[in-house]
Amino acid sequence: MISPYSVLSLLFPVVFIGAMTWLIVWSTRRRRARLRQRAAQVASVGWYPVPPNPWLAQIAANLFREGEPGETYAGVYQGRGLCVLDYTYVTSNGKSQQTHTVNLVALTLPVALPPLTVRHESGLRMFRGRDLELENQQFNDQFRVECFDDRYASAVMHPRMMECVLFNPGLEWQVAGSAFVSWSANGFAVPDVLARLDAMTRLIDLIPPFVLRDYGQPTFS
């Protein structure tokens, strides 16, 4: 006679495998549906698929770590060229690995400017290298400015610019040559990107003309 425990021990692997198979199928279908919905939203705003931009992928690698570029779209927003990139990288603690997905959004600038990065302040200032201290203490408490040229950074981060950054507290960004780049976690969603593009445009418009003139270099298509 077969004991109930023997039956359970035989059924458990079958049930477990069946549950895992269902979960994989469900996750795959959900992801495909999400991508189809995103593709429709992308088409509705006039963006189009392009090969991954190596330059933008390198910015992602510098911000996070080496990884793989994913779906990439290009288009125009309020007269400025844009590029949207999904990017995936892996971290490991020696025992297990975790896959992370982020997205980057880039808008073109009229000139190429020196690098400047604005990140959320983590509180670990002593471990994060240079951080420009500005006159707005609320800004200093929430954000850090990384730049090799304090004079240039101070010119960009004038009071109105800091106020605009504080008004959009979720946005981290970087001036990278002839592009203004922001990033966030997970794959991109069109409504989120549109909101970020609006905030990015306001920030770009606040870059003083003398900064563009004195620090800018011509861009070449």
From TrEMBL:
<keyword id="KW-1133">Transmembrane helix</keyword>
<keyword id="KW-0472">Membrane</keyword>
<protein>
    <recommendedName>
        <fullName>DUF3137 domain-containing protein</fullName>
    </recommendedName>
</protein>
<keyword id="KW-0812">Transmembrane</keyword>
<feature type="transmembrane region" description="Helical">
    <location>
        <begin position="6"/>
        <end position="26"/>
    </location>
</feature>
